[in-house]
Amino acid sequence: VYNGSVWVKEGYLHEPETATNLIADSIVTSSNWDVVGSSITENVSGITSPDGGEVYSKIVEDSTTGVHYVSRSASIASVGCYSVFVKDAGDSRFVILRTNGSGGDSYIIGDPTDGSVTEVGSDVISSGSVDYGSGNYRFWFTYDSTLNDVTGYILGVSNSATPSSGLPSYAGDGTSGVYVWGAQLEAGSVPTSHVPTAGSTVTRAADTLTLP
Fold this sequence. Notes:
The chain is mainly beta. It contains no helices and 16 strands. Strand 9 and strand 10 (about 115-120) form a beta hairpin.
């Protein structure tokens, strides 16, 4: 509907196809995600996710010089879409979404203050962000997993919107980072509605709509 200045989505979201979140733990925790050059603060109080819960985690860079990220193993043998919800932590830091493996250049860097995608890897097919309101943005990109040997999926922190690498090395300050929640990997070219997972992959059934 038109709200007087822009077109906005209203009403019923209908998902006509099934979707499986292949990341077994969609909430980022130190017990389920591998941590490199950073730490994870879980269930940050007062930081509300799009589903109304206080389940955002903060990826905090450590004070070493190097890369700062967390990663989770998953696999897909087709065109895949990787997405995560992000919220600005007020630290002038950017979020990195990328595949992890040999070869290929599949990543995006996003600005959590306005939802803009500031850098895109050469192997990315399409990318973008969705504004969920209240400072919540869902960043996503689509790639072809057959182009490289993907072993996992990374959420990283960057001190630059356009670094020289999709996973830059820099001296962290030990406190800065970004809020992340709802990591999802699914087959297809666009992100569908979030499928929560907690220890195993989950499949959402297709919606059926009957009009009497």
